[in-house]
Structure formats: structure tokens, C-alpha cells
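hey can u run this one w/ oxa(dethia)-CoA bound, need the C-alpha cells asap thx
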Amino acid sequence: MYGVKISGLGKAVPRLEVSNEDIAAFIDTSDEWIESRTGIKSRHISTGETTTELASRAAQQALEDSGLSACEIDLVIVATVTPDYTMPSTACCVAKNLGIKNATCFDLAAACSGFIYASEVAVSLIHQGSYKHALVIGAEVLSKTVDWTDRNTCVLFADGAGAAIYVRTDQNKIIKILTASDGDGSELITLPNLSGPSKFNTIQNPQKYMQMEGREVYKFATTAVPENIQDVLADTGYTPQDIDLFILHQANARIMDSVAKKLDVDNKKFFKNLQKYGNTSAASIPMALADAKEYLKPGDKLILSGFGAGLTWGSMFIIWE
Ligand code: UT7
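ok here u go:
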């Protein structure tokens, strides 16, 4: 089995920054409610930037950070639930923008766990020797999928992209990845992608926008995530107390505090950038990792952990290099 490590990171957000006060100007909410219930203060919202554009910007940054050239990338996976097209894949469009040739390119949909799922695929394929340099991107333009009159969702979700480059190496640094799902919870967060009625199909879909039963998802996250983190560390010789930094999906600061408490870990070890970016689904973990990079030193032990629609969840245990 070949070793794998992260060799480059990047992130991108749309130009327009929208504060809680800006949202409170057009729906019945307040900065106080949003910040105290979620930790979010502001977010970036697309005024035209596409998922492909954000993904390409983050990927270009990751490529420069790694020192690799585009022609060395042989696998591109984009985790997204908001692709610009169902076909071609966002991954193929990113490859075109970056000048990546002949790579295996595809999109993967696992909602807010997408980056962890895509990383598991990429890392496994490098471990087994099929590829050497994989570009894994989480990218979303969620602002086009939310109902901007629904205060239950529109104050939470936002746009952005994060990218990581995984490379083959002698000393393995991606110690373990553990993903899972529970389809019984599939109705808790939904975003339809159905076409309208056609000549032979009369089905009408009344739901246009994303819907979420926030309270139920909150209960799921605060139960599944600490268990999954314990499970990913099992047999590694490490405990949650040994971990230097936890980077969770940036959905809610209260979820992170609850997970910290359940793991008996200081919540200061939980990296947060949701105050600036909101919940960017598949993009949130690689964006947070890109922001956390300046605080990391070689040998640091990291847990990355995602959870979301599906229901899906998953964690990665990494030693930083
Ligand atoms: O990324 C995918 C995974 N998603 C998540 O992890 C989200 C998990 N869930 C959550 O983070 C939280 O459940 C929310 C942030 C979505 C909601 O927080 P909550 O503390 O669970 O609030 P709630 O849904 O129980 O609502 C409490 C009250 C309700 O009013 P009543 O019924 O008590 O009178 C809501 O109508 O807050 C009201 N409310 C709001 N008020 C002002 C809901 N949204 C808003 C809002 N502004 N934006």
C-alpha cells in the first residue's frame, strides 16, 4: 500500500459579503438570533460566480501551494450538490480551466459530508496505486437553492469552494477515514433535482428549494459525530484528547461545542470560520483546513469530520506534514 499526504490547499469565495443585518433587512430575523443560535455573522453570496468558477479558483490555489503542475494531476473529484450542470461534471470543467489533461474526473454528491467521502475515494485509489496526484474539491453555490423567504434555511447556507491535493508519498499521513450513512433520515434535508412534466411524465414537484428539519439534524449531528470520531480513532492508539485540532463541517458553533463536550475535549481545539462564511456544505471542511493551515505544525494530529443530508457522515484522521 502506498502512503498518502496532503500537499496543497486552496479556497475561494464570491466577492459579495452579506451580513446578518443585511438579511434581517428583508426577512423576520436578527443578527442576535443568527449569531447566538449558529455562530454565523456573515457569508459570501454569488452574484454570478458559478460552482465551476469557485472550484477552479480554489483548485488553482491548491495547485500553486503544492508546487505541482496541472499535467501531474491524474484524478479530479468535485464534491458538490450544486453543480452548474448534471453533465458535464464540474470536475471536467475544472480540469479544462486548469489545463489538466487525461485525468479521471467525476463529481460526487454526499452533501455536507462530500469532502470526506471524496477524500476517502481519492486516498483509497492512491493507496492502491491507481493514481499519484489527486485534486479533491468541495464547491457549492447554495444561494441558488435556498428560498430567500425561508428564515429556517436562508440565514445558514452560503457559497464557496475549498480544494486539497493528495499525493503519493513514502510515509503515510492519512491514517484512517470512516464514512457512513442512514437513508432513514433522507427526508430531513432535501433539495429536488426533478425536471418538470414532459410528454409521458405528468409528475409535478411542488418543492423547488432546499428544505431542512433543523432540530432533527442537530440531534443527529450531536450524536453521530462524536461516535464517528471515537470510531475513526479506534485501533490507532490515539484518543480524542491526543488530537491537536478538530475541523468539523461548519454548520453550527453549538454543534461543535456539543461534540467537544461529548468527547471531553477543550472546545478551543475546534477550528471555526463559520462566523465569516456560513454553512458552505461540501466546501466548508477544505475551506476551514485552508484557513487553519497557518496554525498547523508538522506532526499535529487532526480530525476532519463532516455530516449532512442523506443522512451521511464521516471522519478522517490525519497527521499534518
Ligand atoms: O449542513 C447540513 C447539516 N445541517 C445542520 O447541521 C443544521 C443543524 N441544525 C441547526 O443548526 C439548528 O437546528 C438551526 C440553526 C437550524 C436552528 O436552531 P434551533 O435552535 O434548533 O432553532 P429551532 O429550529 O428550534 O427554532 C427555534 C425558534 C422557532 O420559533 P418558535 O417556534 O420557538 O416560536 C423558529 O421559528 O426560532 C425560530 N427561528 C428563527 N427566528 C429568527 C428559526 N429560524 C429563525 C431565524 N430568525 N432565522
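DSSP finds ten helices and 13 strands in the chain. anyway lmk if its weird
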